[in-house]
Automatic annotation (TrEMBL):
It catalyses: chloride(in) = chloride(out). Gene3D superfamilies: Neurotransmitter-gated ion-channel ligand-binding domain (2.70.170.10), Neurotransmitter-gated ion-channel transmembrane domain (1.20.58.390). This is GABA(C) receptor. Belongs to the ligand-gated ion channel (TC 1.A.9) family. The gene is LOC107590344. It comes from Sinocyclocheilus grahami (Dianchi golden-line fish). NCBIfam families: LIC (TIGR00860).
Length: 426
């Protein structure tokens, strides 16, 4: 009796499956052909619910999205009688036996249907033959990004849906957004580097020279990049390195190890920042906004090193010139350098006035009693307007003034650059 009961139960399960296939008359039709074959194009409505925007890669120029893709069409071959007009829902096993739209993602790199714990596919058939086919998909698609304003940029990406160019053209299948602009819905999506400004659907036509015109649907979304991350990781460190390079203007010009070490350190740090930013970006053939800022800042740091090289050169040249003057005047230069330890900037800053005016200097005054007066150097006390060449020569002969001017010029120039940069790109 128990064996007969089990066999009966097994047969009854089998009979239920047979009844379902008989109800939909699957064996009576050729589902290799579309509904209404030979007639007008079959309309297929689409609506999408975006579950998540998983990742956006600037290096690969793509994005990954998980969504619920729903298709709506009518196939009268699957109509069935019903007294209560209720639909019937099936899983993915039945979808393999009937006709379904051949929708695919244009420019897709990778995609898959979720299959945990079962394939995430749902098929719902209504008594009048209307069908709802829903599938949960994760797709990675191309996004052609423009980085000319990076990281102050806004990217416009789109996921494109189309009927396969190998099967049904515009005359056979017509894709459309089922509910217009309301056909695209999104859950609450939060991204680490981007703010989603807008999600909206659109449609168009695509031409393939060998097969014809095809309907194409677009899921457009606009992404605006959060700037705060790059302010902390790129802009603020760069600003600090530029400001740090200006510290050398306040260090004694004879402190060669201190000023050279500071200049080399800031240059190497700027190179590290530029390398780190470039490594996380695609190798594009145009200049990005962040490149302009980084390389201009690098130029300021580099010029601060060149500034000290000029100061050191002119200082050495100035001292050698004045030592030659002392030798020509009969003054012992070696004694002057060793006398009272007074070989400082104030002691050798000989201007274009007679050297007799320097008698107030403590080091030179100690020699006045034994050393004959030095012959006057050509010059004048009259104040008159200098030419540009004379001004340059004056600065070269007074190299300490280069640091004084740099303390003003470098900050003002960098501040002006920042005003222009942020007014253009922000």
């Amino acid at each position: 009796i128990r064996i007969d009961y089990k066999l009966k139960r097994k047969d009854s399960t089998k009979s239920l499956l047979i009844k379902t296939e008989q109800l939909l008359r699957i064996e009576d039709h050729d589902f290799a052909m579309r509904p209404g074959f030979g007639g007008s194009a079959i309309p297929v409505g689409i609506d999408v619910q975006v579950e998540s925007l998983d990742s956006i890669s600037e290096v690969n120029m793509d994005f990954t999205m998980t969504l619920y893709l729903r298709h709506y069409w009518k196939d009268e071959r699957l109509a069935f009688p019903s007294s209560n007009n209720l639909s019937r829902t099936f899983d993915g096993r039945l979808i393999k036996k009937i006709w379904k739209p051949d929708v695919f993602f244009v420019h897709s790199k990778r995609s898959f249907i979720h299959d945990t714990t079962m394939e995430n596919i749902m098929l719902r058939v209504y008594p009048d033959g209307n069908i709802l086919y829903s599938v949960r998909i994760t797709v990675t698609s191309l996004c052609s990004m423009d980085f000319s304003r990076f990281p102050l940029d806004t990217q416009n990406c789109s996921l494109e849906l189309e009927s396969c160019a190998y099967a049904y053209a515009e005359n056979d299948l017509m894709l459309y957004w089922k509910n217009g602009n309301d056909s695209l819905r999104t859950d609450e999506i939060a991204l680490s580097q981007f703010f989603i400004e807008e999600f909206h659907p659109s449609h168009g036509l695509a031409l393939y020279s060998s097969t014809g015109w095809y309907n194409r649907l677009y899921i457009n979304f606009i992404l605006r990049r959060h700037i705060f991350f790059f302010m902390l990781q790129t802009y603020f460190p760069t600003m600090l390195m530029v400001v740090l390079s200006w510290v050398s203007f306040w260090i004694d010009r004879r402190a060669v190890p201190a000023r050279v070490s500071l200049g080399i350190t800031t240059v190497l740090t700027m190179s590290t920042i530029i390398t780190g930013v470039s490594a996380s970006m695609p190798q594009v053939s145009y200049v990005k906004a962040v490149d302009i800022y980084l390389w201009t800042s690098f130029l300021f740091v580099f010029l601060s090193v060149i500034e000290y090289a000029a100061v050191n050169y002119f200082t050495t040249k100035e001292e050698m010139k004045k030592l030659e003057q002392l030798k020509l005047s009969g003054y012992d230069a070696s004694q002057a350098m060793a006398f009272d330890g007074c070989f400082h900037d104030e002691d050798i800053e000989l201007s274009a006035f007679p050297l007799s005016d320097l008698n107030t200097d403590t080091c030179m005054s100690s020699q006045n009693s034994t050393t004959p007066a030095l012959p006057p150097v050509l010059g004048t006390r009259l104040r008159r307007r200098r030419s540009i060449r004379q001004s340059v020569n004056h600065i070269m002969s007074n190299s300490y003034k280069i640091d004084s001017y740099s303390r003003i010029f470098f900050p003002l120039a960098y501040f002006l650059f920042n005003i222009i940069y942020w007014s253009i790109y922000s």
